[in-house]
Specification:
mainly alpha, three-stranded antiparallel beta sheet, 3 strands, 57% helix, 4% strand
Length: 210
């Protein structure tokens, strides 16, 4: 029986690309769910309901719900299925996973960027300075990085409504930054993994042949 040709260093690569894809696909699902939950909680500062015009603008970008959430389920399913054994070592599946990993990377990057912006500019709140719903911590051209409210916890009391909104935003946006960052890393790894899987397949038989 004729053996199928192998690519260089196939014995090292093909034994791990399939398992790696499955692991990444499974890992993306809980991260997507947690991102959706974190984004939804941003709509309810201090666990209370507020009118839409009293919420921070960045909440309405749906970075966790769409970017790192719903958009991540599609790559997750394709990446996980790409790790299965198939015709030609499932090279076609691994090739498609590269495309969907790219989509997932863009979604995670969107969440990561918007969340950083939302945390840096601070929450929208009814503040004690002018008793208006504004962004009292917004970093404009007249302030430098040392003036960011994150470094001055004593400033947080400026926002008296919603209660604890500063800490609420910091925690949830930080979670979205972390989740988005991890998703970006996983999608980037799968892009590289997919390249190896496309070239060398996803599985290895006992005699070292795909």
């Amino acid at each position: 029986m004729l053996k199928k040709p192998r690519c260089p260093s196939q014995a090292v690569v093909t034994m791990c690309t399939g398992k790696c894809a499955k692991c990444i696909g499974v890992s993306l699902i809980p991260l997507a769910i947690l991102s959706i939950i974190a984004n939804i909680l941003l709509f309810f500062p201090n666990g209370q309901v507020w009118s839409p015009d009293q919420l921070s603008d960045k909440v309405w970008y749906f970075e966790g719900i769409v970017g790192a959430g719903l958009l991540m389920f599609i790559p997750s399913c394709f990446i996980k299925s790409a790790g299965k054994d198939g015709c030609c070592g499932n090279r076609c599946g691994m090739l498609c996973s590269i495309l969907f990993s790219g989509i997932g990377f863009v979604g995670a990057l969107y969440c990561f960027a918007i969340s950083i912006t939302g945390m840096v500019e601070g929450p929208k709140c009814n503040n004690s300075i002018d008793n208006k719903w504004t962004y009292p911590f917004f970093l404009n051209s007249t302030r430098n990085i040392t003036d960011v409210y994150l470094f001055h916890q004593d400033w947080w009391s400026i926002c008296f409504e919603p209660p604890n909104v500063v800490l609420w935003n910091i925690v949830l946006f930080s979670m979205l930054i972390i989740f988005g960052g991890i998703e970006m890393i996983l999608c980037a790894i799968q892009i590289i993994n997919g390249l190896f899987g496309t070239l060398c397949g996803t599985c290895m038989s006992d005699d070292g042949v795909v």
